[in-house]
Amino acid sequence: MLSFLPPSVRGVLASTLLVLNTLFWCLLLFPLALVKLLLPLRPVRAAIDPIANAIAVGWISGNSAWMRLTQDTQWDVSGLDGLENRGWYLVSANHQSWVDIFVLQRVLNGRTPLLKFFLKQELIWVPVIGLAWWALDFPFMRRHSDAYVRRHPEKRFDDLEATRRACEKFALVPTSVMNFPEGTRFTEAKRIEQKSPYRNLLKPRAGAMALAMNVLGERFRALLDVTIVYPGGIPSFWDFLCGRVTKIIVRIRPVEIPAELATGDYATDSRFRKTIQRWLIAMWKDKDREIDALLGRPSPQPAAAAAVDAMPTTSGDGDAD
Q: Is the pTM of this model over 0.85?
């Protein structure tokens, strides 16, 4: 442990180890990416994807190693019992920081199949790692604002179709399909602007989750409802690298996916869309209360709780998840 070093020194050291670890594993991954690009055939993909996923697991293990070396963070994790590294999972979590991704990878690595995230389209241009995400079939989403969709209604379901194509690729190899239903990182300013009825969360959107369940529903062992809490406050990634995050709480709750939610058409069936939105809203309400409890906050006042209960199921989710 190098926790005795000044935070800035640890931050530089952790950043260096992260870059070196990334470059090492990417050098192994990129030749496979070239083969996939030149030979985009299903048998080729089926042969290469398990190897590419194993390389990604090695990268995550390397990251966990430098975390142990440079940080003195207390990890409070529960809910890992019973998870299996075979088969498929749908993983849903609240989103506050880039740190969330490293937290999820560390706690689930080796316990579930490789996590694959839905990423913003612009991230494909990130040097080195953008190409790695593409090689690993991470889906890139071109999110449209509500205002843009009103001007261009033909773009309404672009992201949903991209999600469907990605999930069809996930069917080839056991995968943990990761989704942040909030669609963006939580901040208090966003919560107020959005008029979210939750104290710790933004409004959830169900489109990507619905399509993942539609394409892979019969394969999913369960939905893993993950709650991430930073008792010392939401950290920046630099805070994390410097070892300033003293404690991280993670709660994992397997949730059975109702069979009826794996058969509907989210894009065209408004009744089904409302059903899955209600299901997600109920889950989000429980998560909001759990975060309050983990932070030692009092329960919300009745008026605030009533606002959550009254939250409409047509919150713009059908436009662009």
A: yes
Q: Is the dihedral of CA 232, 235, 238, 240 positive or negative?
A: positive
pLDDT tens-digit map of 23-32: 999 999 999 9
Query: What confidence category does residue 141 fall into, taking pLDDT thresholds of 50, 70 and 90?
Result: confident
Which helix (H) or strand (E) element contains residue 230? none
Is the Cα dihedral 110, 103, 133, 26 positive or negative?
Answer: negative
- Output b/e per residue, 220-234; b: 16+ Cβ within 10 A: bbbbbbbbbbbeeeb
Domain ranges of the chain: 73-309
Tell me the residue ranges of DSSP E strands in 11-57.
none
- How far out from the chain centre does Cα 220 lie? 16
Alpha carbon separation from 212 to 72, 191, 217, 250, 321 (Å, rounded): 37, 26, 7, 23, 12
pLDDT at 299: 72
